[in-house]
Write a structure and sequence with these properties.
Strands 1-2-3 form a 3-stranded antiparallel beta sheet, covered by helices on one side. It is mainly alpha-helical. It is built from 15 helices and 8 strands. Helix 7 runs antiparallel to helix 8 and helix 8 crosses helix 12. The protein has 3 domains: 61 residues; 99 residues, Orthogonal Bundle (DNA polymerase, domain 1), CATH 1.10.150; 197 residues, Orthogonal Bundle (hpI Integrase, Chain A). It is elongated.
Length: 385
Amino acid sequence: MWIEERKGKNGDITYAYIERYTCPLSGKKKKVSVVYGNKSRLTQKQALMHLQERIDEIMSGYSSSVTFMDLLDSYIEYHSNFVKVSTRRNLHHARAGLLASIPGDTLYQNITPSMVQHALNVYYEMHAYSTTKQLLNLFRSALRYNFRLGTIKDISIIERVELKRKPISINDIDRAKDKFLEPEELKEVISLLETANPVVAKLCEFQSLTGLRFGEMVALRDCDYDKETHRIHVNGTLCVDHGTTSEYSRTTPKNVYSIRYVDLDSRSESILESFMLSNKVRQLWKHQEKHNDYIFTTEGGYPFDHHFVNKVLKKLHYHKHLSTHIFRHTHISLLASANVPLKAAMARVGHNDPTTTLSVYTHVTNAMNKEAVNAMELVAKKLVK
């Protein structure tokens, strides 16, 4: 600290007490000052304390008073303006996963790599690699965002945390087989659904025949169906907010490859037209206001919500975990059993990365296993002869 004497216009003498500090953003030296009317020892002590308080206040704005929750929430608030509803949900799920191990009021300066690594390891014990990776991505993105704004000055911690995929085990292979239904199982599940809820049975059967994501299916409108060519144009997805049937928004599909035409077989076309007919009858006889042009709608005229369908599926207590997505995977397995080329299967279900399709495609169905055994039987008989 140093003191500069200053003379006012009216001749009054004041003393400016000045101190330097290093700006964490630019690395440059900057000054703060306070002014007193004298330079006694007591005043100097007071000025020194006052200057330090001002420097501490300035520096606290960069990192020392920022909590872990502040970092996450500021990034989520910003990023949510540019993503879909489903992505926003994933961000909040990842946030909850991190805060389950690291208290939200923890100051960022007190967070260590071991704390973050522990949070990831604990979460990975109970969740899939892809889900756990969302936690790490959120952590890294939140730090980079706040560093760019100058809220924090050091993000080297992100280079010291990692997530490695576990080796594939026998249990993983068995679980992969549970991601789709064999033809006999599909027939059984549809039969159970027809008893529990005939409308949901049609929705799930349509998914298994077309391979559409549930959001893509309920986003279909009258104009997306071409009766002459027997195909549908998949060009959107429907996101329902807060699990209600009244708050929904239609957005673009998952990616550009998801925009596609899907040819319909006679059964899937029949299901689609039955929903369209029901919509017209409901509007005619119940004088129901037409909320939209969506095809797969409830009695109230609103698109179906996947939460509702999943609840119906859960009540079946089937030996495999049933959700709306299992019927999409089932469609891929049916394409595989029919020897449909991988590229054609990818185009039909809207995949860009072949590994995504292959995760289901390469798991041989029971029917294909039997065909392999029968083929070997013929070979064996020829060898014996």
